Amino acid sequence: MFLEELQINGCFGLASFPEMGLPSVLRHLEIEGCQNLKSLPEGMMQKNTSLKFLLIDRCHSLTSFPKGGLPTSLEHLSILYCSSLKSLPERMQNNTSLKILTIHECNSLKSFSRGGLPTSLEYIDINGCSRQQSLPEGMQNNTSLKELNIEGCHSLTSFLREVWLPNTSLKYLKICDCENLESLPEGLHNLKSLDDLKIKKCPLLMSFPERGLPTTLKSLEITDCCNIESLLGLHNLTYLDHLEIKSCPGLMSFPEGGAELPTNLINLHIEDCKDLEQPLSEEFSSQAILQALEDKTMIESPDCIEIAQKQCFL
Fold it and tell me: What PANTHER family does this protein map onto (predicted)?
């Protein structure tokens, strides 16, 4: 059989696959809305050497993957809305072709497989896994990772140093809606390629790590972090040109009245920080600085910093 692409959608009576498994030349497989599917073919690992794309979506009875794991040829794996799934495939670190991993709304998933994830991964998106308690082991060995999105992981309280991130390659990091997260990793400053950091809806987070943020950052957004009190170390972010702070009522003032803000800023947005007493010093808000920002095409008008300040008191 020369079947290369297979889509199975809405087959409610499908509970399992034949023992012979799937065609060995299959490259693209999508299984969606098969609510009674309990298992995938046990022979997927041994017999299929061509599979590159696997999507499993809304298979609510699926609890685990085949013991033999997944084909090592796999490049893209998406697991969406599989509410009973308790574990990821075994020996995932052997899937050295895998570049994209997406896991959404798998509420029974508590941890990753032993041995961690393959070092070939370039994109990881973990969203809505409310029982996920930790990041995968060995992520510090991944030198290919460029984007990491962690969202809706309500059981995640902190990052362990030994499973933190590589100090190369990562350019984009988003941590959002982690309601029990109390701290960011102390080694965050080691991410030497990071240029975009977003931290949103983390109400227990109070401050940045003592060693600060990566000096390579170009964009920083902090939103709905109601207990964050300190923004120390921003003056070290010499490449930062976009800073956005929204809905952070615990923030009382900028260090030194804003004198420590990066001078390279092009876009500064402060909104709904109602307890902010002195957003910016007169020195930072001087006409010379505003003119410099205007010359860099910051904005609609050179008064935008003043407008943004006024919004904090509304």
Answer: DISEASE RESISTANCE PROTEIN RGA3, PLANT BROAD-SPECTRUM MILDEW RESISTANCE PROTEIN RPW8
The more confidently predicted of residues 227 and 142 is: 227
Q: Report how far residue 75's alpha carbon sits from residue 77's, in angstroms, rounded to the nearest whole number.
A: 7
Question: How do residues 116-132 score in pLDDT, each as one tens digit?
Answer: 888 899 999 999 998 88
Question: For 127-149, how does the pLDDT look when each residue is reduced to its tens digit (9 = 90+)?
Answer: 999 888 777 776 777 889 999 99
The CB-based long-range contact list for 272-275 (8 Å cut-off, 24+ gap) reads: 272/246, 272/247, 272/248, 272/311, 272/312, 273/245, 273/246, 273/247, 273/248, 273/249, 273/312, 274/249, 274/312, 274/313, 274/314, 275/249, 275/250, 275/251
Q: Closest by alpha carbon to 268, among 277, 256, 60, 254? A: 254
Does the pLDDT of residue 287 top 90, yes or no? no
- Cβ contact 180:157 at 8 Å: yes
The first and second tokens of residue 136, run together, are 């995968």
Yes or no: say if 20 and 44 are a contact pair by the CB < 8 Å rule: no
**Closest to 245 measured CA to CA, from 275, 222, 272:** 222
Q: Report the predicted TM-score, pTM, of the whole model to 2 decimal places.
A: 0.85
Helix H or strand E encompassing 149: strand 147-151
Query: What Å distances lie between residue 175 and 28, 138, 181, 198, 259, CA to CA?
Result: 31, 19, 10, 6, 28
What is the four-CA torsion angle of 14, 20, 23, 24, rounded to 10 degrees? 140
**Whole-angstrom Cα distance, residue 76 to residue 140?**
21
Structural tokens at position 10: 């809405």
